[in-house]
Amino acid sequence: MTQPDETFRREDLKRGMRDGLERSLEDRVERYLEVAHQGIIPNHHFAAASSECIDLYRDGYFWSAVMVSQSVTEGIWRFVLERNQVQSDRDREAQAATLVQQGILSPECADNFGRIWRSFRNDVHHMNPGVSAVPIRDLAKRNLIDLAAIEREIFAVTFDVGLLIPIQPRYWDVPPNGTISVFLRKPWIAG
Predict the structure, then answer these.
(1) At a CB cut-off of 8 Å and minimum separation 6, what does 139 contact?
(2) Facing residues of 164 across strands?
(3) What's the CA gap between 184 and 48, in Å, rounded?
(4) How far is CA 162 from the centre of its chain?
(5) Under a CB-based contact definition with an 8 Å cutoff, are residues 34 and 145 in contact?
(6) Which pLDDT score is estimated for 189?
(7) Of the chain's two ends, which shows fewer C-beta atoms within 10 Å, N or C?
(8) What residues does each domain of the chain span?
(9) How many Å apart are CA 115 and CA 13, to the nearest integer?
(10) Three state DSSP letters for 41-62
(11) How buried is residue 191: exposed, middle or buried, by Cβ count under 10 Å (0-12/13-18/19+)?
């Protein structure tokens, strides 16, 4: 049984959270719409983190959005290399250029990867003193736009009579029966 003070505190917290949500709702919707993310992606190990990254940005957690966008991008990069049976190279920018020449990535997608790699990764992840000068909100927006573009290229789909058809099936796990495990992104505000 809750005590009267605890009941009051609980109701006060609810009221404060509702008020905060109501005051920030338009900004949250605007940030959500700024990032034209891929609505359906394969249900791979990074799918939930990628979706949470969108929610972090939407809700104004810019530091976390930057960190998660960098991590998810690294995961997708390794995934692309594995699916194309390419060994990882320490010089990612040069390797991305090679993947463009081989037709694995578009030049735009390689640029998206590059911008995220150069987005103050070490300063942000290690909280180096220089991090105080990072324009974190702008960086979060740029990273989320770039990550969305990467996912739209890698995980592009079309639909034919209600069937989901991956444009690049090598990035999707399609079993013999043709059913595909997907991660659906929610269009509503709740994460």
Answers:
(1) 62, 66, 119, 120
(2) 159
(3) 10
(4) 26
(5) yes
(6) 39
(7) N
(8) 35-184
(9) 40
(10) EECCCCHHHHHHHHHHHHCCCH
(11) exposed
Q: What share of the chain is helix, strand, coil (3-state, %, to 5)?
A: 60, 5, 30
Q: Which residue has the tokens 């739209």?
A: 152
Instruction: Indicate the DSSP class of residue 127.
Output: T
Contact, 9 vs 1, CB < 8 A? no
Strands 182-184 and 163-166: unpaired
Question: Please, where are the H alpha helices in 59-135?
Answer: 62-83, 92-101, 107-117, 121-126
pLDDT at 38: 86
Compute the radius of gyration of the chain from its Cα atoms. Answer: 20
Q: Distance (Å, rounded) from C-alpha 3 to C-alpha 38?
A: 47
pTM, two decimal places: 0.88
